[in-house]
Amino acid sequence: MAQKTTLWRCLHCDLLNFEQFQICQACYNEPASYDEETVQLPGKIEPTSTKLQGRTVYHQDLPPYRAGYAQPTLSLTMTSRAESKYDGNDEQKTRHDSKWDTIFNREYFIRSEMNDCEQYLYDNMKQRIMFLDGGMGTTIQKFKFNEEDFRGDRFKEHAKPLKGDNDLLVLTRPDAIRQIHIDYLLAGSDIIETNTFNATSISQSDYDTQEHVKEINIEAARLAKEACDVVMQREKEQGLPLRRRFVAGAIGPTNKTLSISPSVEDPGYRDITWDEVVNAYCEQIHALMEGGVDILMIETIFDTLNAKAAIYAVLSVFEQRNVRLPVFISGTIVDQSGRTLSGQTTEAFYAAIRHIRPFAVGLNCALGAKDMLSFLKRLANTAECFVLAYPNAGLPNEMGEYDQPPNEFALEVSCFAKERLINLVGGCCGTSTPYIKALSEVMANYQPRMIPKYEQTRDRVMKLCGLECLTVTKELGFVNVGERCNIAGSARFRKLIKNNDFTEAVAVALKQVESGAQIIDINMDDGLVDGVKAMKKFVQLISAEPEIAKIPFMIDSSKFDIVKVGLQCFQGKCLVNSISLKVGEAEFIKHAKEILKYGAGVVVMAFDEKGQAATRAEKIRICSRAYNILCDPKYGVNFPPQDIIFDPNILTICTGMAEHNQYGIDFIQATKDIRRLCPYSHISGGLSNLSFAFRGVNKLRGAMHSVFLYYAIQNGMDFGIVDAGGIPLYDDLESDLREMCIDAVLNRDPENIVERLLTKCELIKAEKETPGAAKKVDEWRTQSVEQRLAHALIKGIDKFVDQDVEEARQKKDKYPLVLNIIEGPLMDGMNIVGDRFGSGKMFLPQVIKSARVMKKAVKYLLPFLEADKEAANKLNTGPVEEDRLKCVVLATVKGDVHDIGKNIVGVVLGCNNFRVVDLGVMCECNTILEAAIKERADIVGLSGLITPSLDEMVFVASEMEKREEFHSIPLLIGGATTSKKHAAVKISPAYPSGFCMRVLDASRAVTVCQALVSEDKEQREEFIDEIEEEYEEIRDEYFGNEQDKVFIEYKEAKANKYVIDDFKSESSLKTYQAPIPKIGCGVKNIKYFQSYPLKELIPFIDWNPFFQVFQLRGTYPNRNYPKLFKDPNVGQTAKETFDDAQKMLAEWIKNKTVEARGVVGFFKCNSNDEDDIELYDDNNKLIGKLHGLRQQQQQQTGSSADQTFTCLSDFVAPKNKHGVHDYIGLFAVSAGFGITELCKDLKENKTDDYSALLAQALADRLGEAFAEKLHFDVRREYWGYEPVESQALAMSATDLHKIKYRGIRPAPGYPSQPDPTEQQTIWRLLDIDNNVRIQLTENYAMDPAASVSGMYIHHKDSKYFQLGEITKEQVVSYHQRKTGAKNGENVEQTQKWLKSYLSYRA
User: What does the pLDDT read at residue 675?
Assistant: First the structure.
């Protein structure tokens, strides 16, 4: 019969106990706290635990609870005053306890208490799309401030130039900054940003103004707030509805990066520390808040580690000031890879910054709206908060300017709103007030993005990241944490770190990733190792390895200072392993809060003040207590429960001590209880501890680990520190070994299990095989001769080709004629090569090596082929002829000596069953046409590198048009200066009766040529029609755009020229002192270089163009040298090609095969009023002129008065009454002497096209390196305007190639001065023909090809620019200045050299 009894409800877990046990018998909390409750029980009570409507009731007659023993259960029913959501299902992993429901059930990014600003923004962003401002820098540029504006009165005597320090304008030109803010607000902005993008001590140190950072930020905030007040007051007076305006404190990324080494040679090096960045941000944030900003905006994030430092600073300042503002965060996706500059995906970026609970997150800069759309979608699909976007005004043009008009910009951005992706929108680079006004008008028709409805089961999910995101869901399954980068767990890794062998240590990490580790555990705790230093170096090194850094890291240490330094080196969201209650509750809370500021998840060890949890009850008690402290708001930590991993201690079993046998099953059972009692948390453990008693017997240990994981994972263990790839599958275990391990793990045979395992150990040791199998012969050499030939061709192995083709020749029954071998197995192999190249399975250097094998085979067979022909003629059966292969005639056009690309195309076509006739370089038009007729060409291909070659191609096309026999022959063009647009607009119209097409590179050449000679007429014509339609569209667009182009008069362009501050006035010119060349000026001080040491050029080689020659293009993040070698597709081939180049270079240096020569000279000069640079001798007598061309095309936005029009002469001091001179340098270098003869020998005598192409590419790189080295020496030594003390000798080649130095090195024939005839002046003054013997061809190409020439301009404000199109007015003026002709006589000659730059049809 029913009975009444008093039960005790646990206030921790809401479950019932029959007694006031010291430890709650349901949740194991100690000390327990109870609430009394009287209930009626049905029937007689047995000595069991009972479930009453989902609550476990422990019977009073049970003996006192003893840890480690399971309790029997009996199901009953009862009614009680409180309902529990736990349904008693033992398979349920998450218990929705009412207490945790209340704590966790709110939108992730919304604080429990919002301030007035937050509430307004929250309400409005849900109702409408709000507006940011546009580009501050863009708008400032329109003012055309000079150095005096930036200095003002206050900084008049400042030691460094200040022009460009836009942030300083809040102190020197506050009127302008205030007006910019007001204009944006009137255009529609709800939120304006302070002019503080670079207002940190780090960025301001470039101008030596770091001591003014606090004042700049305070004043910037004050100006912006003042502008808001002005506009809101004005609207109030006009009777307009109240519309509040807010100020966001702009916090830029600084000009330093914490994730990327500035040195290619040392990927672990950083030129700034975490603490320096955090301190700089703290200073800025304090000042912004003191100035009164409403919002903090961390923006333009290209390196998420910098952003994490900013977030750390923000949270620290919030703590210190005891106030919190809404935080907006905006990242920058740099290109179509969808990643930040430091390599993170959009999702990974959000996961890494999510811990600050941003009010809004978004993207800005780098991309226009069209290119940003797909990445914004990904962010909007991920973010729980509001989403913002402020793209650039399209992509910059060739001049680095933004010319997308406001209406078009607004229309593109409206796509964000159409798809309901945004709540807040604005503009970045290139945008100004008209853009914001256009946005506000367009966006009025759209609704804002809806914040995803909060769902605990979806949003309370752990998200970790490296460069990529790892979302820990049930579907992901068990997460492998690689254990081999742990000093305490790996003897090999410990030895590597102690020996300072970090290169091999990095390889250990990579192997873990390749073996399947999803997280890498890193531990540097050792008494003989500086843990802080080792952790920092190692994490920075592996952060630079994309294949490793793509996954999250687990920073593992018992020393919290080591933990912190690890977190400070990685941009992803890490895990910390570990913290525990053994340090006491106060210290535990302190550590947890600090970890939360870094955004990391945490592993909590089951330790407390009493020691390590060994039993099931102790594990549950300690973990539940830790969970309460971390997640219950009353403790003030508020750690996200999904970011907590409990490690309940996997302890060693089967040690011979009976009490240890229970450790395995205790862990497994405790795992289930912890997952139930601590919602959303995770369970991990160090697996190697389990089998430590059997170290050395890896087979047994692996089996024990496999069995343990099998049961632990079923009960809720979802993380494990394991040797990734070293654990056998449960089902693959030998049945007897598996059963034995099950008995051990589940403690099913406590009496005998140790002896059974020891016996198994002896058997395993006895079964070990002895190493030392004989090395097998290469398997491919045992195959048939046909298979061997195919293998040799595919692999590029020429070692056995002679003997293999001879073996094939002896098979007269199968190959009666030598031609049968060429057409049979050799062409079969080459067809495979062609197919693989076309599908991207082989790469250009491999194809060229294949061609080398083919040529060697054919060369061997040639005498026998001739013998077959003679025998056939004697029998009067006619000559043996090859089936006619489709023929392609290739030529580098007249006046051009560059042929690397053409040669590659020839090799690739030859590998794909085409007969290639290569006419070489500098080919006259008639030579090309006669060869095409003689060879019965199916296709003609023209190549060229220099600009005049484009006109020569037009001429060849027009000559083909005149002769009807050519109209059926397609004309293909290629080369660095060619373009699809030029082919469509200039060349194709010259050959209307035929077909003309530009081919990008060798990889496209095969498919194009195959399509053009296809036997399928319909398919061939369809291909031609498609290209011609495309070219017609290009022509229509081009000539349509021509009508939109605006050119100002030449006179007006000169009036609005680019003016350097030093040359602005006679007074500034009077004090101007140009650096005097140290080696002297004039023809008597010209310096010549004969047989320049190639070895000195090696550090200056830019290898990236070398790989581009061979079309070895990596994908992000392995695009460029040396990371290209790590690319999964082309890396191995790139490394092999590079190694071949190194061997060749070493041979050249040793044998002096190739010679480098050069010359440099300096001359007095001044610019004149006619855009020319006049050169003088020592007596100031005019000895030559370098004629200049000036920009004339007006930008689409703004007036000509807002734009400067540049000419090279602008960078040289003008003629003046004070007699102040400037100086200019002229030079020419070549590394091509001997290369023509070498390549001819390699191709004709050694049939080695690969080495010939390699030699050309290498010589080309050496020529460019010579130019770079000479410029380096000019700056430091020969001219000396950038001496050693101001220019680090350790400057990397990468820095030099990125032009990170003072001055420019323009050359005639290139975009700043596209007239190649200007080289004549350089050749005459330096007497190059007689002393260096670099020759100019009739089209002004340099011979030999690997040559570079140009001029040196020293001024710090000089810059590279593109001329763009110019009008006939200027062309006539230029022609008259050069030739002395009057009234434009014979201007056609000048127009010929400038044809691509004319704004009119000549």
Answer: 92
Residue with tokens 């946005």: 439
Query: What stretches of 999-1116 show up as alpha helix (H) in DSSP?
Result: 1002-1012, 1017-1044, 1050-1055, 1066-1070, 1104-1109
Angle in degrees, CA 986, 991, 996, rounded to 5: 75
Residue entry with tokens 């498919």: 1007
In order of 223, 314, 317, 323, 671, the CA distances from 286 in angstroms are: 17, 9, 7, 11, 45
Among 188, 229, 190, which residue's Cα sits nearest to residue 386? 190
Using a 10 angstrom Cβ sphere, with 0-12 exposed, 13-18 middle and 19 or more buried, the burial of residue 671 is buried
Give one word for 716, left, alpha or beta, with left for phi > 0 and alpha for psi -120 to 50.
Answer: left
Question: Can you read off the two tokens belonging to residue 490?
Answer: 């790996």
Which residues, other chains included, contact 1178 with Cβ-Cβ below 8 Å and sequence gap of 6+? 1081, 1082, 1164
The end-to-end CA distance of the chain, in Å, is: 113
- Tell me whether residue 898 is one of the annotated catalytic residues: yes
Q: Compute CA distances 1401 → 921, 1044, 1326, whole Å.
A: 29, 16, 36
| Placement of tokens 């009023």 in the chain | 1169
From the candidates 705, 898, 982, 1187, give the one annotated as an active-site residue. Answer: 898
- The amino acid sitting at 648 is P
Angle at the Cα of 864 from the Cα atoms of 858 and 867, rounded to 5 degrees:
135
Integer Cα distance of 431 and 448 in angstroms = 22
Average pLDDT, rounded, for the chain: 84
Q: Contact at 8 Å (CB) between 532 and 1103?
A: no
162 contacts 209 by C-beta, under 8 angstroms: yes
Distance, CA of 521 to CA of 509 (rounded, Å): 9
Which H helix or E strand runs over 1172?
Answer: strand 1172-1176
The two beta strands, 1155-1167 and 1087-1089, are antiparallel
Q: How many residues does the chain have?
A: 1402
Token representation of residue 868: 């077959």
DSSP letter at 738? H
Q: Are 227 and 185 contacting, i.e. CB atoms less than 8 angstroms apart? A: yes
Q: Is 1280 helix (H, G, I), strand (E, B) or coil?
A: coil
CA dihedral defined by 448, 453, 456, 462, rounded to 10 degrees?
A: -30
CB 718 within 8 A of CB 472: yes
Catalytic residue among 521, 896, 951, 1343: 896
Q: Are 8 and 80 in contact (CB under 8 A)?
A: no
pLDDT surpassing 80 at residue 308? yes
Euclidean distance between CA atoms 190 and 722, whole angstroms: 53
SS3 1036: helix
- The two tokens of residue 1323 are 């050749």
* pLDDT tens-digit series, residues 1011-1036: 899 888 888 888 898 898 889 888 87
181 as an active site residue: the answer is: no
DSSP symbols for 1286-1317: GS-TT--HHHHHTT-SSSB---TTBTTB--GG
Cα dihedral angle (212, 215, 216, 221), rounded to 10 degrees?
170
Rounded to an integer, what distance in angstroms lies between the CA atom of residue 1025 and that of residue 1013?
A: 15
Residue 358, token pair as written in the block: 């941003």
d(CA 850, CA 826): 11
Q: Read off the pLDDT band of 1268 (50, 70, 90).
A: very high
Catalytic residue among 189, 943, 949, 1349: 949
* AA identity, residue 1214: P
User: Which amino acid, 912?
Assistant: N
Q: How far apart are CA 1391 and CA 1368, in angstroms?
A: 9
204: tokens are 């301001």
Looking at residue 618, what is its pLDDT? 93
Geometric angle at alpha carbon 605, from 603 and 611, rounded to 5°: 165
d(CA 503, CA 687) in angstroms, rounded, equals: 27
CB 185 within 8 A of CB 154: no
pLDDT, one tens digit per residue, over 446-486 is 999 998 775 554 568 899 999 999 999 888 888 988 888 99
